[in-house]
What does this fold into?
Amino acid sequence: MISLGIEGTAEKTGVGIVDSDGNILAMAGKQLFPEEGGIHPRLAAEHHAEWIPKLIPQAIEESGLSYDDIDLISFSQGPGLGPALRIVATSARSLALSLKKPIIGVNHCIGHVEVGKLDTGAVNPVSLYVSGGNSQVIAYESGRYRIFGETLDIAVGNCLDHFGRETGLGHPGGPVIERLAKKGSYVDLPYVVKGMDFSFSGLLSAAIREVQKGTPMEDVCFSLQETAFAMLVEVTERALSHTQKDEVMLCGGVSANSRLREMLRTMSEEHGAKFYMPEMKLCGDNGVMIAWLGLLMCKEFGPMDLNDTRIIQKFRTDEVDIPWIDNSKS
Ligand code: ATP
Ligand code: FE2
It folds into this structure.
């Protein structure tokens, strides 16, 4: 069975083609870089409307297949920006109807975890999924992927990007902050873990205030990273202890950060757990993860009725039954 997946929950448009053995046959993508400010949902939607019709034929060509070889159209049903999701769902429906192929909508966050497992060989990890729009600690337990911890306000990537924009470092802030942090030393910033959840908005305001006070940018960047990442690693560590799993996986666009990788790897090794991270091109949003999860879901539940393909803007990771993981190994 061959699945074509369409991704577009935020500012990246992606189309991927995968077969049921997990071979990646094509992967095409186009990122929107806003001229100023953050991501505007309408601009993201316009970006998808422009690029989905271009990326689909590009992916088909790359795969060497014909449209007729595609057995399933998968799309990201949520969570994400409403206008962006609507364009993705409409494109997927149009493609499925015109090709007379079945369709399935899937959860974007689970897509990250499943493609990570496919790429790394991890079997049942505690996953830290960190991006511009999401920050969650996810692990499988009792039939579903459970959220062991998540952000109470903004995502960690959003925190870095917002800091970058407010302080003139540009967008996206993550890579620039990482570079500057290499030369910084520590200043105190608020560390907020409440129960198993983390919060980044107070940290963001405090970091901006430090810059306004004249604290060297390198020091603020270093401290922002150290504080934010320590919060993420603490919650991942506690989820690892609670679940007694022996694998940790990092995914999402913030995985690009080598300091976060180092901190998470060190924590994992201290617990005797193996640390995994998918290839960077599979860490960020992509169509392959949607195509692959569509195959896994379709094998278990069959395709969707068109009436069930409505977008789910606040689609939670723990809303989906996951029968393909062996419960005895969880
Ligand atoms: P999602 O829809 O899953 O929320 P996204 O639209 O945020 O995804 P991604 O490509 O997964 O897209 O992640 C982008 C984020 O990754 C941005 O916030 C960016 O600042 C961050 N990022 C990229 N490189 C680095 C880095 N080196 N260090 C820290 N953050 C980084
Ligand atoms: Fe994502």
